[in-house]
Specification:
6 helices, alpha+beta, single chain, about 20% helix, about 350 residues
Length: about 350
């Protein structure tokens, strides 16, 4: 069963620049076979060297520019049509390693924030004996929801899945990292998705970026959101990666202060009328088939993962100061400022 929802999205980000700085943003919605970008545009003033580009191995879209000083305000708007594939969980079976498509294999391995090798014994003790299939994946997601408290400000841009398991609290990027690590520990391909979300509880604060999980089961990538912040069919993909290191919404090289943001997302039906979204927790939901995301080889994907594990070398070679905003930042600007000594 398939359904479509159109979303209107706007994103405004503000910065105060006190010296030469370079900006890299990943805020544009992704174009995939299941997510059609009807309109996408951005504007920014007081900057130089503006360019847009897409990564070769994933549909992540980036905006890059430089600024010398003063206020920098980036405004982005988009209209996007998301096709949702719904399925009965009982029909979705796990794959043996031998039967997994090549494109999914890198997502079995540990990554910077998802140290699945260190959580192997925990995952197998708690979930290894559960019946294989979608229900086991959902049980892991439900366990994370029940055992990790949503609390902005208790984690930062270095918090890993193991840290979250030990602390028992975090924000949705932490929920996603822990869920991914547990799934990979059981030989289930899992990946990190950053996006816009609709339908979150207003008590959590203004509309924000969101992080969730896709796991490969039943020959598709199905959505699991262990934070349960919003309906799964209220999610719009921005970027996909091994963990949050691949899809930070902003990475800034230089002396720059974040001054604020304003996000909005509104769903519409096929008659262009505002829509109230209702999720059906009895069904599985997917917005990505096995080959939707990649146009490069397995080797290129593996190389990309190895590069993502070692970002500090590239940072140190290019800038004295780095401000990296790692998705998610719900409830607070979860930014990291690091001085690099060259």
């Amino acid at each position: 069963m398939n359904s479509e929802i159109r979303f209107a999205i706007s994103c405004a980000l503000g910065y105060k620049v006190s010296g030469p700085s370079d900006f890299l943003f990943n805020i544009e919605v992704a174009q995939t076979p299941q997510q059609t970008v009807l309109d996408s545009r951005y504007s920014v003033a007081n900057v130089q060297n503006i360019e847009s580009f897409k990564t070769k191995d994933l549909p992540n879209r980036f905006i890059r520019f430089s600024a010398s000083s003063g206020d920098v305000n980036l405004d982005y708007t988009a209209s996007v049509l998301v096709n949702h594939h719904w399925a009965a969980p009982i029909t979705l079976q796990e794959h043996s390693i031998a039967d997994l498509p090549q494109e999914t294999l890198p997502y079995l391995l540990p990554s910077r924030y998802c140290e699945s090798d260190k959580l192997f014994h925990f995952a197998n003790a708690h979930f290894g004996q559960l019946p294989r299939g979608y229900q086991r994946l959902q049980a892991i997601s439900d366990w994370v929801y029940a055992n990790v408290r949503f609390m902005p400000g208790v984690s930062n841009a270095t918090t890993s899945a193991g840290d979250t398991l030990a602390a028992g609290m975090g924000v949705c990027r932490d929920f996603a990292h822990l869920t991914i690590a547990l799934l990979r520990s059981l030989n289930i391909p899992a990946r990190f998705v950053a996006g816009y979300d609709y339908g979150a509880d207003p008590a959590l604060g203004p509309t924000d970026f969101h992080a969730y999980v896709e796991a490969f089961v039943g020959n598709r990538w199905f959505i699991f959101d262990s934070s349960k912040i919003c309906p799964r069919n209220g999610l719009v993909r921005i970027g996909t990666g091994f963990d949050a290191a691949d899809v930070a919404f902003a990475t800034i090289f230089g002396p720059t202060q974040f001054t604020g943001m304003n996000l909005s997302i509104q769903p519409f039906d096929k008659f262009n009328q505002p829509l109230i979204i209702v999720d059906d927790p009895t069904l599985a939901i997917s917005t990505a088939a096995v080959d939707d995301m990649h146009d490069e080889s397995f080797a290129t994907l593996a190389d990309s993962m190895m590069m993502a594990r070692k970002p500090s070398a590239k940072i140190a070679a290019n800038s004295d100061y780095v401000i990296s905003a790692i998705a998610d930042i719900r409830g607070t600007a979860n930014t990291l400022a690091t001085a690099i000594n060259n």
